C-alpha cells in the first residue's frame, strides 16, 4: 500500500519541525515537502502532488486561507487532489469561519498530540473530516446557543456550501434519486456524485439518510418547496 504523502507549510520552523517529527514517526505516512511560505508551498504541491497539505494561517504575502482556497480550486471534477488541514496555535470564531468557507478538510490546534495529528491526516486522506476538540466544541456551542428555526438561521457548516451544493442537497432532501437530481439540474450523474461526496465531507455526514435529515433540519427542503 502506498504511504499517505503530506506537505507541511508554516511560517515557524518549530511548528514545521514538530509536525514533521510527529508524522515521520507514523507508519504509512511520508512527509514529501516542508515550506515556510504559501507561494513556495503551491509550487511544492504541484511538484509532489501530496495527499494532504497541513497549512498554517499567516505568511508574508499570500495567507494560509488563500493557499487552502487555491489547493481546493485545483481539485479535478471528481474531487481528486490534495486535501487540506489548517493548523493554528489559537482559533477564534472568525478564523474557523474563514477556513471552513475556504473548503478545509481538517482543523488542528497547536497543542495537538502526535496521535491527534496522525488521526487527522489519516482521516482526511481517507476522504473524511477531522476537527480538533476545541473547534468541534465551538461549533456545538454555536448550535446550542441558538433556537434554530428552519429557514431563519444557518449553521456555520451550511454557510460553506456553494449555490449548486445547496440545490443538490435540497433535491436529495426531497427524496430524488441521483439520476433524477442530474436530470433536474441538467448535469451528469458523475457530477452529482461528486457534489454528494463534498457535501458529506463539508457537513460531516456519513450517508444519504443523514443528508436528507440535514436538508430538513436546515430548512433547505422547505425553502425550495
Based on the model shown, name its key terms.
single chain; 225 residues; alpha/beta; Rossmann fold; Arc Repressor Mutant, subunit A; 11 helices; 13% strand; globular
Number of helices in the DSSP assignment: 11
Mean pLDDT: 84
By helix and strand content, what is the structural category?
alpha/beta
Low-confidence segments, given as residue ranges, are 147-153
CATH superfamily of the largest domain: Response regulator
Major sheet: size, sense and barrel closure?
6 strands, parallel
From N to C, what is the helix and strand string?
Answer: EHEHEHEHEHEHHHHHH
Strand content: 5-15%
Q: What topology, given as strand order, has the largest sheet?
A: 2-1-3-4-5-6
What is the CATH level 1 assignment of the largest domain? Alpha Beta
Cα-based radius of gyration, to the nearest Å: 18 Å
How many structural domains does the protein architecture include?
2
CATH topology of the largest domain: Rossmann fold
CATH architectural group of the largest domain: 3-Layer(aba) Sandwich
Instruction: Please give the share of residues in helix.
Output: 40-55%
Q: Per the principal axes of the C-alpha atoms, what is the gross shape?
A: globular
Termini separation (Å)? 47 Å
The total of beta strands comes to 6
Domain Response regulatory: 5-125
Protein name: Response regulator transcription factor
Pfam families: GerE, Response_reg
Domain HTH luxR-type: 154-219
Amino acid at each position: 500500500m502506498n504511504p499517505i504523502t503530506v506537505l507541511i507549510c508554516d511560517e515557524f520552523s518549530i511548528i514545521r519541525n514538530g509536525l514533521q517529527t510527529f508524522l515521520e514517526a507514523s507508519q504509512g505516512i511520508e512527509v514529501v515537502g516542508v515550506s515556510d511560505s504559501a507561494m513556495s508551498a503551491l509550487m511544492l504541491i504541484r511538484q509532489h502532488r501530496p495527499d494532504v497539505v497541513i497549512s498554517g494561517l499567516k505568511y508574508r504575502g499570500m495567507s494560509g486561507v488563500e493557499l487552502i482556497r487555491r489547493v481546493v480550486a485545483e481539485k479535478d471534477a471528481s474531487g481528486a487532489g490534495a486535501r487540506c488541514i489548517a493548523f493554528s496555535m489559537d482559533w477564534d470564531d472568525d478564523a474557523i469561519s474563514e477556513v471552513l468557507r475556504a473548503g478545509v478538510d481538517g482543523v488542528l490546534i497547536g497543542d495537538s498530540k502526535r496521535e491527534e495529528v496522525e488521526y487527522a491526516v489519516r482521516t482526511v486522506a481517507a476522504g473524511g473530516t477531522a476537527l480538533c476538540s476545541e473547534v468541534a466544541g465551538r461549533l456545538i456551542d454555536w448550535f446550542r446557543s441558538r433556537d434554530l428555526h428552519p429557514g431563519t438561521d444557518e449553521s456555520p457548516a451550511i454557510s460553506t456550501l456553494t449555490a449548486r451544493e445547496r440545490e443538490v442537497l435540497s433535491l436529495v432532501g426531497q427524496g430524488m434519486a441521483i439520476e433524477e437530481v442530474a436530470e433536474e439540474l441538467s448535469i451528469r450523474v458523475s457530477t452529482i456524485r461528486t457534489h454528494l461526496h463534498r457535501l458529506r465531507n463539508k457537513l460531516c455526514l456519513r450517508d444519504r439518510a443523514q443528508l436528507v435529515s440535514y436538508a430538513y433540519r436546515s430548512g433547505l427542503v422547505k425553502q425550495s418547496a
